[in-house]
Amino acid sequence: AKPGEFPGGYPRRSRPHPRAGRRRVRGSPDLLVPAGFRPAHEPRAAHFSVPPNLKKRCYRGRRAEGIRYEKKVHEYLDSFYGEHYLASPWIKFFDEGKWRWCQPDGLIWDLARGVITIVEVKYQHVELAWWQTRKLYAPVLQTMFPKHLWKIEVCEVVKWYDPAVVFPEKVILACDVDIPHSGFKVHIWRP
To answer: Which pTM value belongs to this model?
Structure first.
């Protein structure tokens, strides 16, 4: 058999180690940055923007199932919150000497409380949601909406929740997306 093949001739599937491509976070020995993720360090400016020129992708399998679920969540949140919900806004921000874009799955404005809730939709509960909301979207939104006027909260909306998923902070299971809480909320919603 050739290298990389089984003795029977079937090609070997090479799967990367779960921690491959991840790097440690300064000051936290157990926290690893997901491969390919770039956090916002100190955004200097940010504003809502038209989307960058990206090719439309065609997804299949589990990824397509996740996209369909996200669309249903957007429809549900739009019908529930109406004009206080903004689905998939593009935000352009200046960080580390260059302009970048990010796109939270949704934002809910609670004008009475002065709170913006970042909504991250995932088919199942994953650590990446924490990185996206806490280390990318929240710093960018805090640049746009000053701390003395607006508070930023986060909520991951999932179809499946697994409490065994290793997570950087304590998770609060929320009966509603916009319940008042500064911790990482997870709302389980099944259409």
So the answer is: 0.81
